Amino acid sequence: MPMKITYFADYFYFCDILMWRFNSFRIFRRGSVLLLSLVAALRCAAVGGESAGNADSSAEVPDSLYYLLDELDVVAMKHGAAFRQLPVSGTMVGRQDADRLGIADVKGLSSVVPNFHIPDYGSRMTSTIYVRGIGARMDQPAVGLTIDNVGVLNKDAYDFDISDISYMEMLRGPQSALFGRNTMTGLINIRTLSPMEYEGWRGLTEIGPRQLFKFNLGYYHKVRNNFGFSVAGSFYRRDGEFRNAHDGRTVDKEISGSLRLKQVWYPTDRLHITNTLSQSILRQGGYPYENVATGEINYNDTCFYKRYFLSDALTLTAHPGNMKLVSVSTLQYLDDHMCLDQDFLPQSYFTLTQKKQELAVTEDIMLRGTALDSRYGWLIGAYGFYRHLDMQAPVTFKDYGIIQLIERNRNNVNPYFPIRWNDREFPLNSVFTIPSAGAAIYHESQYELGAWKFSAGLRFDYEHVGIDYNSWCNTSYTIYDNPTGQLPFPADTKVYRQAPVDLEERGSLSSDFFMVLPKVSVMWNMDLLPASNFYFTVGKGYKAGGYNTQMFSDVLQQKLMRFMGLGAQYDVKDIISYRPEKSWNYEVGAHLNLLDAALSVDASLFYIDCRDQQMTVFPDGQTTGRMMTNAGKTRSVGGEVSTFYTILPELSVMATYGFTDARFVDFFDGKQNYKGKRLPYAPSNTLFVEGSYMFNVSKRFKEHYFSVHLNFSGTGDIYWNEANTLRQNFYGLLGGSIGYHTPRWSLEVWGKNLTGTKYYTFYFMSIGNEFRQRGHGMDYGLTIRAHF
């Protein structure tokens, strides 16, 4: 199909799906937003501010960006200042930086932030994040994500493109005292454009190889000084880069889109309201895993990932007296579907299908105030959430898998009465309902004494998680009488008897977790250097506990093997349950402005002591999978530095570097002790350097200019296994862009991995075979932006 026809066919097909999804959710959404609005109205009445009926339509709206951050951003509201005035290590990427670097998602942010690594593998579902050596491949994330005040609860929804980003910031180190669960190593905060900071149309078109087509369009309108709205949508399509040798097709084609509606209203100068409704949809191939032995991607069963995600956040900010009261109410809905050739081979072993529907609501209320001539500041807050997840996850055994994994194992043990499965394909069915809920109260105090600033925070966090599970298998096999014990047994071997299989594993489990999360810091503001400081911080972080649903197919498989006289006895609770992971983080750092603020430097050193680490281990028995358990103790030590130097008004250099030495203190995976070994999948070094040069075209067109940007990003070494016998060496990727800019539009030609560096982003083993994923090769494209 010609490129142009393909683009438009995919675009209209995708718009149709997006609107159908939205309409199917419309009744529930309207009811939920109405409920949130009603709660908001009641809260507004409670704080004693002027009513909406007395609204002053000419209320002044300050133009400073920080005011907007402080009023509309829950992260800024909790911290009370920009991160460079806080005892925390962080990196901020503004709108122009995001445009220049082509950053449109969390994965893109990881290329410029030190000690922050998100490998690009599998699909957008596999949002594995490592910060300072700590992370997880399964279940709970170690890093929190907030997008327009929506604290995303499920990491399966972390990875999607976001249009019209205002800024992105990554705060490293535990943020658990203020943000709770799953912010053990940091917090990613993303804010999109507000109609109160930008007015007009914004558009983007991007084209490139493999039928790359990206289109963004947004409209931002401030109806009055105190009310504005925006509508922004995006569409993305691209053919795959990696080809499956089995059928000759690319496996990683992607089509995605999003739609966002934002409303900002200042009824009075003491009451501000914003609501952001977003939805995104994704259709993706994926899992381009090549067999190490053959160097080919070659599997026969279909792999894909589909996702629909909707979120709504209602934020109210009121000013009773000299205090600030903030309420953030969010609704999240996730509907995704994954299909996986789990053996990644051309033979028919087994497949995994996973369908999830999750609904979640959260509420965060906080009150901030000052006393003692503003030398003392305080924050108190309460948080609660509820999640309900329904999941179906059948594993289907196919003919070759039945032969190799079941019949051969069974017949080698008892060749005189061998078996043959009657059904040459059968499922191990699993259905789950997983409700969870949590509540927390938190407090932070800050006291300024001259150039010193002391702060202490404490959070009490409670969480309840349950699971109702039902796994079953209905199939049958034939037992033969083989007196000679010859294998394979002759075709005319006499039938001994039929053996029906009717297995079921049904039950309910629940767990309760209670955490106390303190944080203490000291900061010294330097008089000699403006806006510069040194700090020391100690804090506790944690990842939530839960249940590993992926093990249920193995539980049922072992039960099936026991039915035939083989297999291990599994206790369901022990095999699927895991407790929260906890860490203590010790950090010293500095934020410096040098050379009359032409040079900014952020530097930090850290030590992390992690206990009850959630690790994947091999359970007993002839199983094809792993289980999550609290098996590890680790420590991570390292440092990071970020600099930005404006050499001349038209010439600047940016550089970030992170070093991490993360090792096991104690970890036994059921087969081997890995004490002293480096943690796998987390890079020891991350590096990013960029030089930027801009120059005018002529004196006549002073606002027209060219831009040249050249950057280099490096990552490694990355160890692929706990034994540290396999690794990806340090590799570097060269990129850059050349652009022409006017007040209304810009045109940019860009390239990534310009030298075609070969590297790998992931490695794993499955049923005795080694697999890995190649990194992306050289890429390039043309981007046109317009704003009017």
Explain what this protein looks like in three dimensions:
The chain has 788 residues and is mainly β. It has 10 helices and 39 strands. Strand 27 and strand 28 form a beta hairpin. It is globular, with a radius of gyration of 28 Å. The two termini are 34 Å apart.
What's the number of helices?
10
Structural class: mainly beta
Poorly predicted runs of 5 or more residues: 1-9, 24-69
Termini separation: 34 Å
Strand content: over 45%
Helix content: 10-25%
The total count of strands amounts to 39
The biggest beta sheet reads: 24 strands, antiparallel
Net shape: globular
Structural Rg: 28 Å
* Overall mean confidence score, pLDDT: 87
Element layout with pairings:
Blueprint: H1 3-24, H2 26-46, H3 65-72, H4 74-79, E1 89-94, H5 95-101, H6 106-109, E2 116-117, E3 130-131, E4 134-135, E5 143-147, E6 150-151, E7 165-172, H7 176-179, E8 186-192, E9 200-208, E10 212-224, E11 227-238, E12 254-268, E13 271-284, E14 289-291, E15 304-318, E16 324-341, E17 350-371, E18 376-392, E19 395-397, H8 399-413, E20 419-421, E21 426-449, E22 452-481, E23 494-525, E24 533-543, E25 546-547, H9 552-563, H10 572-576, E26 577-578, E27 581-594, E28 599-617, E29 627-648, E30 651-667, E31 685-696, E32 705-716, E33 718-719, E34 727-728, E35 731-741, E36 745-752, E37 760-766, E38 769-774, E39 779-787
